[in-house]
Amino acid sequence: MRSPVPRFRDVERQAGSLPPMQCVPPCHDRQNTMWFVRDACGIVCAVITWLLVFFAEFVVLFVMLLPSKNLTYSLVNGTIFNSLAFLALASHFRAMCTDPGAVPKGNATKEYIESLQLKPGQVVYKCPKCCSIKPDRAHHCSVCKRCIRKMDHHCPWVNNCVGENNQKYFVLFTMYIALISLHALVMVVFHFLYCFEDDWTKCSTFSPPATVILLILLCFEGLLFLIFTSVMFGTQVHSICTDETGIERLKGEDPTWERTPCWEAMKLAFGGPLSLAWFSPFSDLSCRTNGSTNIPAPPQGEIIEEDIIEIPLQH
After folding, report:
1. Averaged over 257-272, what is the pLDDT?
2. Whether residue 27 lies in the annotated active site
3. Are 104 and 296 in contact (CB under 8 A)?
4. CB atoms within 10 A of CB 306
């Protein structure tokens, strides 16, 4: 059974609402400042994420690859694992330090609404928490303390919201973590088989008990994060293809927007037609705007008191 939809959605069906800002990332409201959420829990989770990757690096390199007698095996697997780990951490950094699509704060003024040149009968909504005019499909995040366009969820592991501007980097992060987890598990299996056939004292520079403990810990970490990130990767791709965010699905909101076809939604989320840039956390997303959807600078003025504002009809 669908959860009840907030009452203001009924008003949206009666009159046209403010359309979402049609600026594909990384415009970030025309600001080039770095985004960082000062949340203690999120910072701790982000640090733990990096430490877990570094632990996996340590075990893979110093327990399994460097002691190996097969130089080709060590070089190939070391190159693959380190490349994927680097891309995972780079994707994590971009997801954490990219503005997810924050709506300008404190722009709920009469002057700003007039500058939008809305049609009579259209309805706009003010967020009572951050005093912003909310575009359609924007939701307020209590951790970021901002309204986020197309907010999917707030993820403490990247210490940021996942929104329209950084969803690509979050998808890449989950994908690369899943890949290095799978790769580590495969190498652990081969290493165990090799050590069982050979002398344990010769297959690692560490003592046999220490080697076994480190491999078991890596196996547990790899299995846990393989399952977790694979599920997250699948849900994110599903959200993109269905053009429905996690919050919209959780609230059971009836879509008031025209759904974008799956492939078009993927190209919007990843910044263009399919190319190697889709898989790079260093490639920015193209910004496409048109004359009707430019974001004007919010004029100065007093914040309006009403949370729902309907543009009066002309007589």
Report:
1. 91
2. no
3. no
4. 11
Q: Is the pLDDT of residue 99 over 60?
A: yes
Q: Is the CB of residue 74 less than 8 Å from the CB of residue 66?
A: yes
Alpha-carbon span 159 to 79, nearest angstrom: 29
The pLDDT value recorded for residue 312 is 59
Which one, of 188, 169, 182, lies nearest residue 87 by Cα? 169
CA dihedral 42, 43, 45, 46 (to 10 degrees): 110
* Cα–Cα distance measured from residue 171 to residue 237, given in angstroms and rounded to the nearest whole number: 8
Q: How many residues belong to the chain?
A: 315
Cis peptide before 26 (omega within 30 of 0): yes
User: pLDDT value at position 113?
Assistant: 80
Query: What's the CA gap between 214 and 217, in Å, rounded?
Result: 5
**Cβ pair 110, 304 in contact under 8 A:** yes
Mean pLDDT of 12-18: 38
Sequence-distant (≥ 6) Cβ neighbours of residue 29 within 8 angstroms: 99, 102, 104, 295
Q: Which of 253, 288, 293 is nearest to 20 (CA)?
A: 293
Compute the distance between CA of residue 20 and CA of residue 153 in angstroms, rounded to an integer.
Answer: 18
Q: Which two tokens stand for residue 240?
A: 């993109």
d(CA 83, CA 137): 36
Please state at what angle helix 167-197 crosses helix 71-97, rounded to 10 degrees.
150
Cα separation values, 31 from 74, 104, 108, 234, Å: 45, 11, 19, 31
Contacts for 160 with CB less than 8 Å, ≥ 6 apart: 35, 37, 42, 95, 96, 97, 98, 100, 144, 154, 166
Residue 120, token pair as written in the block: 């009579």
Residues 6+ apart with CB under 8 A from 305: none
The reported pLDDT for the residue numbered 144 is 92
- The answer to whether residue 285 scores a pLDDT higher than 90 is no
Per annotation, catalytic residue among 23, 155, 195, 203: 155
Q: 146 near 140, Cβ under 8 Å?
A: yes
Cα dihedral sign for 138, 47, 26, 241?
Answer: negative
